[in-house]
Amino acid sequence: MLRRNPSGDRPVIAESAYIDHTAIICGKVIIHDHVFVGPYAVIRADEVDELGQMEPITIGANSNIQDGVVIHSKSGAAVTIGEQTSIAHRAIIHGPCKVGNRVFIGFNSVLFNCSVGDGCVVRHNAVVDGCDLPAHFHVTSSQRLGPKTDLSTLPKVSISAAEFSEDVARTNIDLVKGYKALQNEF
């Protein structure tokens, strides 16, 4: 369901994107080409800052926002999801937040007030809160990173983890094509 926010902003969605009919896309949201937004995802840009302004939530081309994901932002701050990035089931991305290109964010993970560099893998049930993760770092399952985390202790993304991320992104691009072909059947 596409909704206008209280400020009057409407989502802008590329024609080639696929948005499941149970998803809610509200307000100042920009979704680029070949993006997959799965069932029950919520992408909501509706809060303003102290001046009444709001930055958009932007989803880059060929990315996927899977089932039950919530993307929102505090006080009108920007949320940017890069290209060929996968946000897995029930993850929460809360702005301000920037997620780079070719990133994998695992099931139930939470990102808030952070940036995640290109090629990173954040595994399932992890939390990245208040820190900036450089490119190609690997956050293991259930790990919590905060402002005082020593990032030098984190491993770099392995070849197999990078291949897994690429495979998930590729699979979801195929889903966009398949669901777009079925779109007029329902």
TrEMBL record:
Gene3D superfamilies listed in its UniProt record: Hexapeptide repeat proteins
Domain of life of the source: Bacteria
Pfam families noted in UniProt: Hexapep
Coiled coil: none
CDD domains per UniProt: LbH_gamma_CA
Protein family per UniProt: Belongs to the gamma-class carbonic anhydrase family.
Protein name: Carbonate dehydratase
Originating organism: Iodobacter arcticus
